[in-house]
Amino acid sequence: MPEWLLKDENYIPQADKDTFVNKSILSLLSILSRFKTQSGYRVETFRVSAVLKVAFTIFLIVLLSLSRSFTFIIIVNVYLLLILSMMRTGEILKILRMSFIVAFFTFIILIPAAFWGNYYSMIMITPKVFATVMAVNILSHSTQWHSITSALKTFFVPDIFILVLDITIKYIMLLGEFSLNMLYSLKLRSVGKNRNKYASISGVAGTMFIKSKEMAEDMYTAMECRGYTGEYRVYTKTKFTYADFIYMMINIVIIFAFFYLGKV
Amino acid sequence: MHIPDNYLSPSTCAVMGAAMIPVWTIAVKKVKSEIARVKMPLLGIGAAFSFLMMMFNVPLPGGTTGHAVGGTLLAILIGPFSACISVTVALLIQALLFGDGGVLAFGANCFNMAFVLPFLGYFIYKFIKDRVKTEKGEYAGIVLGSYLGINIAALCAAIEFGIQPLLFKNAAGQPLYSPYPLSVSIPAMTIPHLLVAGVVEVLFTVAIFAFIKKVSPGTIYEGAKQKTRAIYGLIVALICLTPLGLLATGTAWGEWGADEIKDVVSGGNALGFVPEGMKNGFSFETIMPDYAVKGLPDIAGYLLSAVAGVAILIILFKIISGVKKNKSGSIPG
């Protein structure tokens, strides 16, 4: 045993601020965990076709935005809460947290308007925002993302956008994990005070860009080898199920309620 | 700068979406002709990059942090047209899958962040870089381009907010969507961007550009060789912006007629709002019955509250049992 190994070391690393590294790691992790819950097979909560879900969710948001009837907004909120209650606990918590944060933010923003005597905005916009955020999040949590992109194809979104969208979703995951590792190593290697840490963050992002460029070229060669010609088709077998029918009926009732309450 | 739904009227959203359609069409065509097919996947990966870039926190003085949008950086690195498509896709993912930014307001958000921001930033950068051929000139271009890019984009968002109370009112004269006029929305949006977000954007853009230039200079987008194009591009960008200006001023003129001018002249906006608001403000109780559940037949009202109660109870129980499960799971472990 060499002698220096037996000596006591009392090196105390100086405290250093690294909030920005921690915050970056946290926000990357939250994104990645959101993507991870999407990957892998799972039984969907509602077996309604994604095309219908996307179409009616967007339609519902349009109706909400157009509506001037408080009753209609409350009906939609109750309907969404009912759907929410059938989802998994973890999903419920996430969706509720998100909706409450956004609605609360809206409420705060609208307080000055209320002081000016404009209560209308606060009463109407806050529940509208709550319902809209809830609707989008229910869609995104209850549907596999690849079926949302293939649903977009039925709405005549050009191929290039869907291709780019598909690649994006996959590569957010890949690049995210890549840069997460770089941030971890930055954190591990800066013992004590590290003055170069601020400069390193640009290195992390810059490396991510160069890496993404290399990945893109590799990916294209791989695609070409497998016969990619620049266009692709989506093959879908759409069967109109019982669940689809119920979902459509509920939505027709909501549309009916919109016009009925709009007249009052 | 992500505008959520219900702050803008559906018709504004439709107009902004329609304004983006030619931009997207040109961008897709341009990208197809300009960029070799080999680089097609780069758009997707560029979108992933721009999505992740918003996750990076930059340290600010005082111990706080902020994140950049990176629109100008992306335009400088992969070209403005590719940047437009990439940011659009990143925004779509945020709106549709993360609920960040509105689904209806998607057109407006794209206009601000996928069109105005990268194009303006890029053309300012290109304009200065072509005139001042030194390295300092290039960095001056980046600084000005990214700073002005994000601030003008914020100004556009502020104008979109600010014209809402002028354009959309109910019978009582109360705004239906975002209630703040231009005099409030412009300072509220631009001051934080001028002071904080713009600085973050500049720091981030310059630092990453310098890094990539040092490490791998070949990967940066070359752009058009001619000098004149940049200025034409700037003019085109400004022309594209004018419909917004027309919309703002034109309708403002129309709407400021008769009653509102009086308010403005007599006591400024903040004060001018009060009398009208007071009139309707006390009708808090009188407005409410119309909008409350009372508007429905009694039975329907009861049913609705019953369903709401059941849904809320189920949610509560699920959350409570979920929390318990987690706790009991953690004790043995």
Please characterize this protein's 3D structure.
The complex is a heterodimer of chains A (264) and B (333). Chain A has 264 residues and is mostly helical. Chain A folds into 2 domains: 48-143 and 239-264, no CATH class; 155-187 and 202-233, no CATH class. Chain A is built from 10 helices and no strands. In chain A, helix 3 runs parallel beside helix 10 (242-263). Chain B is mostly helical and 333 residues long. Chain B has helices spanning 10-34, 40-53, 71-78, 80-97, 106-131, 135-162, 164-167, 182-215, 228-255, 258-281, 284-291, 298-330, and strands spanning 57-59, 65-67. In chain B, a hairpin with a 5-residue loop joins strand 1 (57-59) and strand 2 (65-67). In chain B, helix 4 (80-97) runs antiparallel to helix 5 (106-131). At the A-B interface, helix 2, helix 3, helix 4, helix 5 and helix 6 of A face helix 1, helix 2, strand 1, helix 4 and helix 8 of B.
Computed Rg of chain B: 24 Å
Total beta-strand segments of chain B: 2
Order the strands across the largest sheet of chain B as they lie in space.
1-2
Low-confidence stretches of chain A: none
The largest sheet of chain B, given as strand count, sense and whether it forms a barrel, is:
2 strands, antiparallel
Radius of gyration of chain A: 25 Å
Q: What is the arithmetic mean of pLDDT of chain B?
A: 71
Whole-number tally of structural domains of chain A: 2
Alpha-beta content class of chain B: mainly alpha
Distance between the termini of chain B: 44 Å
- Shape, per Cα inertia axes of chain B: globular
Separation of the first and last Cα atoms of chain A: 90 Å
**Overall residue-averaged pLDDT value of chain A:** 81
Helical amount of chain A: over 70%
Tally of strands of chain A = 0
- Portion of residues within helices of chain B: over 70%
Q: Which band does the percent of strand residues of chain A land in?
A: under 5%
Secondary-structure element string of chain A: HHHHHHHHHH
- Regarding quaternary structure, what we see is heterodimer
